[in-house]
């Protein structure tokens, strides 16, 4: 799929939608078959649902949108709609619901998927906003991948021996020393999209933004750099924190990123059931917005605004065009970015030179979600579609924006315009950050 609009070949669209659905289901299967039924039905943290809830919720959303809304079919299991309504039941309460047991949940999602593939095989992919360019099928593939990422977070929170394995990411650093920061020239650029066929409502519409010149880190902040903030008393000094951030640090007694602990004069972390030394050259992960903001202040810098982040990721100063990705319009490959749960950790900072932006900024896509300075707000001309609960109900000062995806994000749910959001206290997510600063006189 290109940025110029829907693929004119309906069979190519059909193949793309089917591949996205099958890829998501294979990942779901991996995440739900590597543990026993007790782990599937347990709540490993009040922040997360039982894995079996996510599994059946995936099938229920697929049924509601693709079988009922798109194909006009009768409901298969209308009595479970309320059970798997994410807005009706907070995560902490979901273990008490009458959830489908694992075997029944698997049967249900398999039946839904079989019917969906039959629909996809015969439906005309034009004639309405849900079917144009196979949008609803792409939306559901993204939804499943987003829940796969959520389930991967649950696996990280789960106690016990490792259930998932993956090779480490390759060290693709090219050996040449990288500048600490990159200048992004001031001026207008196009933010958001009106042409990406599977873009979600909060990414739309494309609009012009004028951004003054600024500097942004070439790579995400590393665990080693963050450790220096800790060792300099960062968690003990009020001056680096916002008021709410300092209260949160004190109330929760935070002293380091989530899953870190100090032992024998070194930092260790727990990663998917394995305790290992923190790698100082990797991007720091599992930090909240408050922690990212405090580090940036300590470093004499700040978090980039959302517009700055997107300009650094998409704007090509040579022709003024906004790309789909930092490297261009081509879909991501393993040479571009660390995506898709191929690896269960970030790659060393400075990796993936083939994924760099025109200005040389690296790892803007994949590895770790990157906190930005901004609240989650609609773009000018925003229209909720296909339902207001996806984005609209979250707009406001409560949530902060993250960009760029992580190693846990599939390429189908990651692009230069994709917007994520979460509470500024959240640390269980695969979140990191990079810093920025204004360009001074004579630097622009």
From TrEMBL:
<dbReference type="InterPro" id="IPR017806">
    <property type="entry name" value="EgtB"/>
</dbReference>
<feature type="binding site">
    <location>
        <position position="57"/>
    </location>
    <ligand>
        <name>Fe cation</name>
    </ligand>
</feature>
<feature type="region of interest" description="Disordered">
    <location>
        <begin position="309"/>
        <end position="342"/>
    </location>
</feature>
<dbReference type="GO" id="GO:0005506">
    <property type="term" value="F:iron ion binding"/>
</dbReference>
<dbReference type="InterPro" id="IPR005532">
    <property type="entry name" value="SUMF_dom"/>
</dbReference>
<comment type="pathway">
    <text>Amino-acid biosynthesis; ergothioneine biosynthesis.</text>
</comment>
<dbReference type="InterPro" id="IPR034660">
    <property type="entry name" value="DinB/YfiT-like"/>
</dbReference>
<feature type="binding site">
    <location>
        <position position="426"/>
    </location>
    <ligand>
        <name>gamma-L-glutamyl-L-cysteine</name>
    </ligand>
</feature>
<keyword id="KW-0479">Metal-binding</keyword>
<keyword id="KW-0503">Monooxygenase</keyword>
<dbReference type="InterPro" id="IPR024775">
    <property type="entry name" value="DinB-like"/>
</dbReference>
<feature type="domain" description="Sulfatase-modifying factor enzyme-like">
    <location>
        <begin position="178"/>
        <end position="437"/>
    </location>
</feature>
<keyword id="KW-0408">Iron</keyword>
<dbReference type="InterPro" id="IPR051043">
    <property type="entry name" value="Sulfatase_Mod_Factor_Kinase"/>
</dbReference>
<comment type="similarity">
    <text>Belongs to the EgtB family.</text>
</comment>
<feature type="binding site">
    <location>
        <begin position="91"/>
        <end position="94"/>
    </location>
    <ligand>
        <name>gamma-L-glutamyl-L-cysteine</name>
    </ligand>
</feature>
<feature type="compositionally biased region" description="Basic and acidic residues">
    <location>
        <begin position="309"/>
        <end position="322"/>
    </location>
</feature>
<keyword id="KW-0560">Oxidoreductase</keyword>
<dbReference type="GO" id="GO:0044875">
    <property type="term" value="F:gamma-glutamyl hercynylcysteine sulfoxide synthase activity"/>
</dbReference>
<dbReference type="InterPro" id="IPR042095">
    <property type="entry name" value="SUMF_sf"/>
</dbReference>
<dbReference type="InterPro" id="IPR032890">
    <property type="entry name" value="EgtB_Actinobacteria"/>
</dbReference>
<feature type="binding site">
    <location>
        <position position="422"/>
    </location>
    <ligand>
        <name>gamma-L-glutamyl-L-cysteine</name>
    </ligand>
</feature>
<dbReference type="Pfam" id="PF12867">
    <property type="entry name" value="DinB_2"/>
</dbReference>
<feature type="binding site">
    <location>
        <position position="147"/>
    </location>
    <ligand>
        <name>Fe cation</name>
    </ligand>
</feature>
<feature type="binding site">
    <location>
        <position position="143"/>
    </location>
    <ligand>
        <name>Fe cation</name>
    </ligand>
</feature>
<dbReference type="InterPro" id="IPR016187">
    <property type="entry name" value="CTDL_fold"/>
</dbReference>
<feature type="domain" description="DinB-like">
    <location>
        <begin position="20"/>
        <end position="151"/>
    </location>
</feature>
<dbReference type="Pfam" id="PF03781">
    <property type="entry name" value="FGE-sulfatase"/>
</dbReference>
<comment type="function">
    <text>Catalyzes the oxidative sulfurization of hercynine (N-alpha,N-alpha,N-alpha-trimethyl-L-histidine) into hercynyl-gamma-L-glutamyl-L-cysteine sulfoxide, a step in the biosynthesis pathway of ergothioneine.</text>
</comment>
<protein>
    <recommendedName>
        <fullName>Hercynine oxygenase</fullName>
        <ecNumber>1.14.99.50</ecNumber>
    </recommendedName>
</protein>
């Amino acid at each position: 799929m290109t940025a110029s609009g829907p693929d004119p070949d309906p069979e190519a669209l059909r193949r793309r939608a089917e591949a996205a659905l099958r890829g998501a289901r294979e990942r779901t299967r991996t995440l739900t078959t590597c543990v026993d039924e007790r782990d599937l039905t347990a709540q490993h943290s009040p922040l997360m649902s039982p894995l079996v809830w996510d599994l059946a919720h995936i099938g229920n959303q697929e049924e509601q949108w693709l079988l009922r809304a798109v194909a006009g079919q009768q409901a298969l299991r209308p009595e479970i709609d309320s059970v798997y309504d994410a807005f009706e039941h907070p995560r902490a309460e979901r273990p008490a619901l009458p959830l489908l047991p694992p075997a029944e949940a698997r049967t249900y999602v398999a039946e839904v998927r079989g019917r969906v593939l039959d629909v996809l095989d015969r439906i005309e992919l034009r004639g309405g906003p849900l079917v144009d360019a196979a949008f609803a099928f792409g939306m559901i593939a993204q939804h499943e991948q987003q829940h796969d990422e959520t389930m991967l977070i649950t696996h990280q929170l789960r106690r016990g021996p490792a259930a998932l394995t993956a090779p480490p990411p390759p060290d693709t650093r090219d050996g040449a020393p990288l500048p600490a920061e990159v200048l992004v020239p001031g001026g207008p650029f196009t933010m958001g999209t009106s042409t990406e066929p599977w873009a979600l409502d909060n990414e739309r519409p494309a609009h012009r933004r004028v951004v003054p010149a600024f500097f942004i880190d070439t790579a995400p902040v590393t665990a080693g750099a963050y450790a220096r903030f800790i060792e300099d008393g960062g968690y003990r000094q009020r001056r680096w924190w916002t008021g709410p951030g300092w209260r949160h640090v004190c109330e929760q007694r935070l002293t380091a990123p989530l899953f870190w602990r100090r032992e024998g004069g070194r930092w260790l972390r727990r990663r998917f059931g394995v305790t290992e030394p923190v790698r100082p050259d990797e991007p720091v992960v599992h930090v909240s917005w408050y922690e990212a903001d405090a580090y940036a202040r300590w470093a004499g810098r700040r978090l980039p605004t959302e517009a700055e982040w997107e300009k650094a990721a998409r704007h090509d100063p040579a022709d003024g065009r906004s790309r789909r990705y930092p490297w261009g319009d081509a879909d991501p490959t393993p040479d571009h970015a660390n995506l898709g749960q191929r690896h269960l950790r970030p790659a060393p900072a400075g990796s993936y030179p083939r994924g760099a932006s025109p200005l040389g900024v690296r790892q803007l896509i994949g590895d770790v979600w990157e906190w930005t300075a901004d609240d989650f707000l609609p773009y000018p001309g925003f229209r909720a579609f296909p339902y207001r609960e996806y984005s609209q109900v979250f707009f406001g000062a409560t949530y902060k924006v993250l960009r760029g995806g992580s190693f846990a994000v599939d390429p189908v749910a990651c692009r230069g315009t994709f917007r994520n959001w979460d509470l500024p206290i959240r640390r269980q997510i695969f979140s990191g950050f990079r810093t920025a600063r204004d360009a001074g006189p004579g630097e622009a």
